[in-house]
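Tutorial, part two.
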Amino acid sequence: MLRALEKAKRLKDRVYAGEPVLGTQLALQDPASMEIFGRAGFDWASVDTEHSAQSLVTVQAMMQAALGWDVVPFVRPLIFDHDEIRRFLDIGASGLLCPFIETAEDAKRLVDACRYPPRGKRGWNPLRASAYHLSDDDYMAAYEESLIVLVIIESKKGAENAEEILAVDGIDGVTVGPMDLSMDLGVFKQWDDPSYIKAVEQIRAGALATGKAHGSGVYDEESAKRAIANKETILLTLSDTGVLGSGATKLGADLRSAIAATR
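Running the prediction step on this input gives:
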């Protein structure tokens, strides 16, 4: 089996075994981001094409950078688009973190975009994914068992339909999109608001009812412990820009304090 598929299959087995898996999102276009998070021991990293300047060229470079580590490369599409998703899979994405999923029909269309006929509607030509057609048979034998499809629920409508979304065969799990969800509810960043808490609980209940993995953002050891106590296993932490920004801010403040102490 191709190494990328082997890594993805191991991760998918862990997801279905209920093990917490740690992921991040990559906005910077340098494949060094993928290498750094791979070296740091992250289980998966999603290249964010929704909110950044990532292109197909940089996405492919990220896929190549991931090969040297155990980290499994995902892609977050700009929007749900059948052809865009097909291209990401063809260049080697092992997983998808797909936004704008609000109904079971949305979820079915997503699965259709990921699977070849007769199960789906994906067009043939997994160019890089099959080692430039040198391993077509290996790819076709293993890709369905290896591909990981996670949806992002980030609206009131999506939360209300969470169980139906997650009941769709081919959807492996869900993560909460907290910013957009709270905005859609009219309570932006008000994490203690009853309507936000209710929506998150609807998503969690849908996941538990269907046996699918679920999770939300974790930003430190304490938030990770709370998430795991709530049976969350899709642990999505700060992005590369988030880690760089918070780290640089803290380091700058510490150094300026040291400088000030000498005056």
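The domain at 3-261 is CATH 3.20.20.60 (TIM Barrel). In part three we will examine how such features are distributed along the chain.
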